[in-house]
Task: inverse folding
């Protein structure tokens, strides 16, 4: 039985020329773009089935140039999960990954602290969930031009607390994995957030503890209230 279609908003970030557009078009259109045409902002939608669940992916392909930093803030606000791309044949694109990652964290933290409504006093504020990020070392087919090792990619991913994969948009290697694993994390977070708070057991435990006798004796079975002893004084 097919479930309802769920929308996931993904944003692809990284330096110019690392293959962000090539990865996005390979995912959405199953086609490899040979020529480099700098992107400012392109949006794609694709219906997929991930782990037997239908999904609608909205993938935003963005500009990597420095002059679009202000626009990037808005792209990050609108996004839910992020694919951070560098080229294994470009050391400088790898070095700039931290800058993109820090911008994601800054914008998302700003969004979480600017809520219009204060938290309910009955429910203390929950810490924000980590932003799902996939680090992608693209152009893994360029073996002879490699400037960034696989081990360096893994080390940076551990430092940033995100997943990592090397991919090739040209050979369609790990393209789906790069995007689908972000969707899986978003889905897990949504399912966790939709669970009702476990308050019933706490109330029951509190009620039980309040019925314990003060003198340390065992409570009577099936007794709702604790019986108090009375003394009679004759004058």
Result:
């Amino acid at each position: 039985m097919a479930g309802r279609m769920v929308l996931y908003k993904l944003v692809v970030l990284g330096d110019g020329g690392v293959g962000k557009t090539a990865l996005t078009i390979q995912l959405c259109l199953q086609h490899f773009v040979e020529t480099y045409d700098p992107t400012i902002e392109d949006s794609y939608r694709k219906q997929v089935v991930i782990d037997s669940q239908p999904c609608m992916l909205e993938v935003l392909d963005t500009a990597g140039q420095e002059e679009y930093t202000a626009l990037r803030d808005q792209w990050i606000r609108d996004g839910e999960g992020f694919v951070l791309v560098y080229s294994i044949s470009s050391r400088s694109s790898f070095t700039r990954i931290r800058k993109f990652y820090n911008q994601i964290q800054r914008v998302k933290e700003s969004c979480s602290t600017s809520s219009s409504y204060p938290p309910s006093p009955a429910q203390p504020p929950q810490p924000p969930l980590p932003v799902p990020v996939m680090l992608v070392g693209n152009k893994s087919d360029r073996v002879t031009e490699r400037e960034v090792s696989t081990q360096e990619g893994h080390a940076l991913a551990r430092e940033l607390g995100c997943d990592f994969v090397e991919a090739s948009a040209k050979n369609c290697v790990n393209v789906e994995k790069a995007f689908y694993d972000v969707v899986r994390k978003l889905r897990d977070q949504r399912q966790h957030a939709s669970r009702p708070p476990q308050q019933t057991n706490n109330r029951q435990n509190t009620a039980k503890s309040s019925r314990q006798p003060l003198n340390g004796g065992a409570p009577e079975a099936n007794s709702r209230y604790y019986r108090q002893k009375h003394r009679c004084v004759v004058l």
